[in-house]
TrEMBL record:
One GO MF term: lyase activity
Protein name as catalogued: Selenocysteine lyase/cysteine desulfurase
Pfam families in the cross-refs: Aminotran_5
Keywords: Lyase, Pyridoxal phosphate
Lineage: Bacteria, Pseudomonadati, Pseudomonadota, Gammaproteobacteria, Pseudomonadales
Origin superkingdom: Bacteria
Species whose genome carries this gene: Pseudomonas duriflava
Domain Aminotransferase class V: 16-345
Length: 377
């Protein structure tokens, strides 16, 4: 029996292909939160236990990111918060520019566009499906300070070659900032191999965790290069609980970005979810997801009227495939799929399907059969 067989027990009438939006919790995560809630009613909430839990979570995040040290990691509210730490922490100079892909997720646009009052310009690059890395690098100039990308595009699912992109950025002195929320937990991601300066991901998608908690990787040489805009007791190098402290300094680690009391409820949930992923092994998770993606993509390609708007090569995809169906607009197609219990999302003019490693063949077949029937109308 597979490790995860009894971990996902949501409504049997639903066929869930929406992990690129939000993932259901595994049962072990719900149990961990229920246990935390019960202990809280009994006033069993000790600070020392919080620290143990937080350290255990950071150790798991370190392994999943392949970060050099837990000191390079901060727990944050979400991906957008971490992006904002970077955008408003760097010492921008008038004339600097930031290069981003065109049609990025809105957070990866507005956060950088908010820098324009500081004299920073934003270069948006349309990406081809054949040479996206070359497209991005060709747009960089001598004034490019930072390249900001989603390592897996949230709509098309295009997966960038982060190793080659990072290597060239490092050679050219360009900082690489990676939104990895659609990458980590779906397919291998490695901050060391990518040589990125910054990477971030919320925990509520492929990592099976809660909303409101994510991770921020800040390369050690960049931690004190980011100006701080949030302060509090938890980000201090020395004990922030000591009222006799007459002087203080920010932590000499990424904890400097964690200003106040940590989200222990969220950490309880995310730690349980990551424990499951590690128990299964990330290698197995990635392999099982690829089996399901291969089955789904091949099935979609056989259907009349279906057009794929996502890469089909395994090296260029993660867990997302976006489609359109001839004769249907996206709104009506989404409604028709949901009536059949198929949970997915509309993105732009298409429908985004995103299974995970545990998605049943029944769910994939139900989706394909439904689309085939809709195509014949």
């Amino acid at each position: 029996m597979k490790v995860w067989t009894d971990e996902f027990s949501y409504d049997a009438s639903l066929y869930y292909l929406n992990h690129a939006a939000i993932s259901p919790w595994p049962n072990c995560t719900a149990q961990a939160v229920a246990s935390f809630a019960y202990r809280s009613t009994q006033l069993v909430r000790e600070y020392s236990a919080w620290l143990v839990l937080e350290n255990r979570l950071k150790q798991r995040v370190k392994r999943i990111f392949n970060a050099p040290s837990v000191d390079d990691l901060a727990l944050v509210k979400n991906t957008s918060e971490a992006l904002s730490f970077v955008a408003f922490g760097l010492d921008w100079r008038p004339g600097d520019n930031v290069v981003i892909p065109a049609q990025e997720f809105i957070s990866n646009q507005v956060i950088w566009e908010a820098l324009t009052p500081y004299g920073v310009s934003i270069i948006k690059v349309p990406l081809s499906s054949f040479t996206p890395e070359a497209d991005l690098l060709a747009a960089c100039t001598t004034q490019t300070r930072l390249l900001a990308v989603s390592s897996v595009h949230p709509v098309t699912g295009l997966r960038l070659d982060m190793a080659s992109l990072g290597r060239t950025c490092r050679q050219r002195g360009i900082l690489l900032c990676v939104d990895a929320i659609q990458h980590i937990g779906a397919t291998p991601f490695d901050v060391s191999e990518s040589e990125c300066a910054f990477a971030m991901a919320g925990g509520h998608k492929w990592l099976l965790g809660p909303e409101g908690l994510g991770a921020f990787y800040c390369r050690s040489d960049m931690q004190e290069q980011l100006a701080l805009h949030e302060y509090g007791w938890y980000m201090l190098e020395d004990d922030g609980n000591d009222p006799s402290t007459s002087s203080w300094r920010p932590a000499h680690s990424a904890r400097r970005f964690e200003c106040g009391t940590p989200n222990i409820l969220g950490a309880t949930a995310l730690e349980a979810s990551l424990a499951l992923l590690e128990k299964i092994s990330l290698k197995t998770v990635h392999a099982e997801l690829e089996i399901r993606m291969d089955y789904l993509v091949k099935g979609l390609n056989r259907l009349p009227g279906i057009q794929l708007h996502s890469p089909i090569a395994p090296s260029r995809r993660a867990g997302i495939v976006t489609i359109t169906l001839a004769g249907w607009n996206a709104t009506h197609l989404l409604e028709a799929l949901r009536k059949e219990g198929i949970v997915c999302s509309m993105r732009g003019a298409g429908i985004r399907l995103s299974p995970h490693f545990y998605t049943s063949q029944q769910a994939l077949d139900r989706t394909l059969i439904t689309l085939e029937r809709l195509a014949s109308r």
